[in-house]
Amino acid sequence: MQIMSNEKSTFNFGVLKNSAFFAAFSEKQLMMISENADCVFVHANSVVFRLGEYSAMMYLILNGRVKIERKDADGENMVVAELSDGRVFGEAALLSRGPRSATATALVDSELLVIDRDLMLEIIRNSSPEEIIEIFSALSEQARAANEIELNETLKRRTLAAQMEAEKQRALTEMVAGVAHEINTPLGVINTAVSIMARELAAPKEVTIQRAADIAESLEIMQRNVERAHRLVQDFKKISVSQLTDEKELFDISEAVEETVNLILVNLKRSQVGVNFVNRLAFEQKSWVGYRGVLSQILINLLTNAERHAYPSGIGGNVDVTIELADDKHYRLTVQDYGKGIPKECQPRIFEPFFTTARSKGGTGLGLAIVHNLVVNVLKGEIRLRQELQKGSAFQVVFPRVLPD
Questions:
Q1: Element (DSSP H or E) covering residue 249
Q2: Is 4 a residue whose pLDDT tops 80?
Q3: Which DSSP letter does residue 339 get?
Q4: In degrees to the nearest 10, what's the CA dihedral of 235, 236, 242, 248?
Q5: In angstroms, rounded to a whole number, what is the distance separating the alpha carbons of residues 134 and 123?
Q6: What is the pLDDT of residues 161-176, one digit of tens each?
Q7: Which letter, b or e, does each residue of 161-175 get, where b requires 16 or more Cβ atoms within 10 Å of its Cβ?
Q8: Which of 133, 148, 157, 225 has its CA 20 to 30 Å from the CA of residue 403?
Q9: Does domain 245-400 correspond to CATH entry 3.30.565.10?
């Protein structure tokens, strides 16, 4: 813990009385804490204590903000609480003298009151049975509240994970339907061309120049449409398979973006949304060892978001997708529309899970939350909304050219 200063507290015990945890303590007990507890000042981003450490102390936040993190079942860090003035933390280790079950970090410069085990035992020794019961009741209530917060956070994370997986499957299902419908067009053209050739070749006739030209034209039409159907199937195969795996692979990032754009365009056509792809990467900048499926899912969600919110009710419009270098070490993927824009009051919440302005139209509020989760947690990058635009919205995804292990 990085402490700016460490001194005996001089504050009035009324500060303790205003804390929900100490509300039931007697004036005598509060005075003992006020006279004997240490007051410490902690820098922003400094760790107060770490998971697994042994330290029999609890803390009262006099002013500031502290983040409490635990490990979930998969070993990932999980923020279970952000505490501010008047809140207590660390009481479990004070009681059990066991290792810390969480990590506490100051989010801003904070002032903390430190109450150690010896002081708490001294308070108990000098308390009546009723007062001792009140102390343990407060500790029990604090533990119950902490467990409840952690349970709610765990349920929230699991619900979000399940919803995200369902949303990904829904997007794939829509893509399957769109590709199947789109493939019908070249197959229909091929069928017509085959019928023309069959009619021409059904009966022996003299092969005139005109007949040869008609047959050649039919063959050319068939070839073009076979290639079109083949490209659709191949693009879909790459994207759908990559959605089901989380392994890094080496691929051309600009080509992957273009393939995703071409595939999602199949579904965007119904809403009259057109996409213009701009590749600003030089040849030597295109190779990326990363997650093709994650990249395509981010792009699909951003384009679907533009279709639903920038151009609602099928009014149609254009979207620009640009891949370029943000600097020598980072790519920047930009998805910009020219639609209705995002109200200023909604902008701070657009990445929150389940926040949506289109719930009445079937919106789940997960599209941008999924994007934010993938960008930050998988690509170790950041996503931001450009707010200075006169019209429409632009989402910029910046992520490393070399992903950390």
A1: strand 249-252
A2: no
A3: S
A4: 0
A5: 12
A6: 676 666 666 666 666 6
A7: eebbeebbeebbeeb
A8: 157
A9: yes
Distance CA 277, CA 253 (A): 13
Structure tokens at 178: 């769109």
* Contact (Cβ atoms closer than 8 angstroms) between residue 370 and residue 168: yes
- The domain ranges of the chain are 3-127, 245-400
Could you count the other beta carbons within 10 Å of the beta carbon of residue 204?
6
What's the farthest any 2 CA atoms get from each other in the chain?
118
84-93 pLDDT per residue, tens: 888 888 877 7
pTM assigned to the model = 0.53
**CB of 356 within 8 A of CB of 364?**
yes
Give the model confidence (pLDDT) of 49-89 as tens digits. 988 888 888 898 988 999 988 877 666 677 778 888 888 88
At 240, is the secondary structure helix, strand, or coil? helix
Model confidence over 296-311: pLDDT tens digits? 889 988 998 888 888 8
Record the tokens describing residue 247, joined without a space.
């392994």
Residue corresponding to tokens 């004997």? 36
What is the homologous superfamily of the domain 3-127 according to CATH? Jelly Rolls (2.60.120.10)
Instruction: Give the CA angle between residues 207, 211, 217 to the nearest 5°.
Output: 135
Examine the pLDDT at 130 and tell me if it is beyond 80.
no
* The pLDDT value given to residue 246: 63
Q: What is the DSSP string of 150-182?
A: HHHHHHHHHHHHHHHHHHHHHHHHHHHHHHHHH
